[in-house]
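INFO worker-7 received task bundle
INFO bundle size: 2
INFO processing item 0
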Amino acid sequence: MIRWLLAALFIPAAFAAPVTIRDDLGRTVTLAAPAKRIVTLAPFLTELAFAMGAGHRVVGVSAYSDYPAEAKSLPVVSSALGVSLEQVAALKPDLVLAWRDSFRVEDIEPLERVGAAVYVAHGRRLDDVPGLLRMLGTFTGLDVAGVTAQFRSRLSDLRARYAARPKVDVFLEIWHNPLTTISGGHFMNDALEMCGGRNVFKDLPGVAPTVSWEEVYARDPSVIIGTGSASNETEFRANWKERGTLSAVRAGRLEWINPDTLQRPTTRTPEGIAVLCERLERRR
């Protein structure tokens, strides 16, 4: 009895009552106790869970959850085809983290019926990363102050370093066929602006619009950057070889960036932005 009382005295106050957070759909999400079994339905959510120290609590992931290496061995419960409710139920999670852009809201209720709280995140801007880290910290009872501060500090350093650099017009290619870019509503646009780049398709609606070759020729960007649009730099350059009348192609201002640290809003994203800034700097 005395041992139980002593243990109770050292239970953090946050654990003594249910935790309630509003998700990005405006829903109230409540956990009665810190999450011990977590399912992540997007690679960037998997990575964030590991980055803030909750990787050992992740029991199921989405396809392409390949970082860190430990995530590769976890059961895959979702893909572009949707979520396997049966697999999720078998894992008995108490928390499911979903990405709004790849998740059907009609799956919320079935997931809740297996006993899981479901948090749906947008994850479209760089500023979403600290918020998601705080959410994970609240739901797990883990301290995320250090990792959040480091993320903010690295972005602040990049902003300060490139804030006064001359602006350069950029086409950011994330897929080649169909030709796909990002609009102003995406964190990669935030990254471009941080580096002193002007996204020539910032004005388009949506998040990842497809564009025509005619539109690219009309806007004639000074630099073309590929990330995720080819498997390597050689392939990327070959894709653009026939477009020699574009200013960027004619002048050889083509840059290919490995997408691993640039296409997901995670704690590694500042690494990708630093590379992006360096590539733009040498093309000014």
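INFO item 0 finished
INFO processing item 1
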Amino acid sequence: MEYVYASLLLHHAGKEINEDSLKKVLDAAGIQVDEVRLKALIAALKEIDIDEAIKTAAVPVSPVAVAPSTAPPAATEEKKEEEKKEEKKEEEIEEEIAEGLSALFG
């Protein structure tokens, strides 16, 4: 993962991503460089448009839009049950109020 982060850092700085520059960043971070991994990453990144990959990966998601679709069915059922209980309590309170007023004004 450090290799990818170092590559993104170089890209963000506008520097060329090659073996030497990547090795310098990793050395500066105190990471022991594995030459095989370094060469493999450089080869893989030659075929990738990093800006496009960042745009594609960094899609903002609204938490409000995600919440209903990611809620488990059990949670939605519990909410429905709670709402029904609250409605019943409200109806009972209204009935008690009506009974109390009828007792006052009979």
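INFO item 1 finished
INFO post-check item 1: Helices lie at 2-12, 19-28, 35-45, 50-57, 63-70, 73-105.
INFO post-check item 1: The chain is about 75% helix and 0% strand.
INFO worker-7 idle
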